[in-house]
Amino acid sequence: MKNKVLHKAGSRGLANHGWLVSRHTFSFANYYDPDRINFGVLRVLNDDFVAAGKGFGTHPHDNMEIISIPLEGDLEHRDSMGNVAVISKGDVQVMSAGTGITHSEYNKNSDRPVKFLQIWLFPKSLNVKPRYNQITLKTEDRQNKLQQILSPDPQDAGVWIHQDAWFYMGNFDEGIETKYQIRKSGNGVYAFVLKGSYIIDGTELSERDGLGISDADAVDIKSGQAGSEILLMDIPMNI
């Protein structure tokens, strides 16, 4: 039997620092809920708003796969590997922190905010060589279908990470139905609604709701209204 965990948008942790407003689906920083530590290898799902010209100063990471997905605006990245880059909507950024890196993230613009998702997954291999990559995808390729944006294979579509995970994004018109087949036995799926609404395996989801499903081979997805956008994460359940 499928197991489900529903995280309503309003139940997420909130950190409001003025220049930063962050919603935490899972325990993070000063937000702690013993029932919301992770979903499988998905450890962090932060929904961040950063004010114009503001950002995160240099800070360290290690042994984590970190994925950033801009939703609005432009985010500037600098790291200890010498990378300097700007990511915008349509881009996907990945860092394998491995043995250790430091980096900073700033809103590139002085006149408008930046909104982005920061996602952390536990890696399947510890102490790998740190690396950075980003790609630009054609957002029209996710109209009424799921576009793969991440996988474990460097030769496959999207960015790759050190984990048996696959990410997809989709933009759907009203009433479009699709069945998603889970890529690897033992994996679960975490769906996060970016805009609009969906019905996933009979569970109704609104904007910024999240739903985790495990012990399943496939999930049924139906968009509730035109312009609905979704992020689907197919991830191992065992850390």
UniProtKB/TrEMBL annotation:
What Pfam families does its record include? Pirin, Pirin_C_2
Could you tell me the EC number(s) of this protein?
1.13.11.24
Where does the Quercetin 2,3-dioxygenase C-terminal cupin domain lie? 149-235
Query: Which GO molecular function terms does the record list?
Result: quercetin 2,3-dioxygenase activity
Its keywords, alphabetically, are: Dioxygenase, Oxidoreductase
Residues forming the Pirin N-terminal domain are 14-121
Q: Does the keyword Oxidoreductase apply?
A: yes
Class of enzymatic activity (EC top level): oxidoreductase
What InterPro entries does the annotation carry? Pirin (IPR012093), Pirin_N_dom (IPR003829), Quercetinase_C (IPR041602), RmlC-like_jellyroll (IPR014710), RmlC_Cupin_sf (IPR011051)
Family from the record: Belongs to the pirin family.
Task: Read off the PANTHER family from this record.
Answer: QUERCETIN 2,3-DIOXYGENASE
> What protein name does the entry list?
Quercetin 2,3-dioxygenase
Q: Record the organism.
A: bioreactor metagenome
Q: Which gene encodes it?
A: yhhW_4
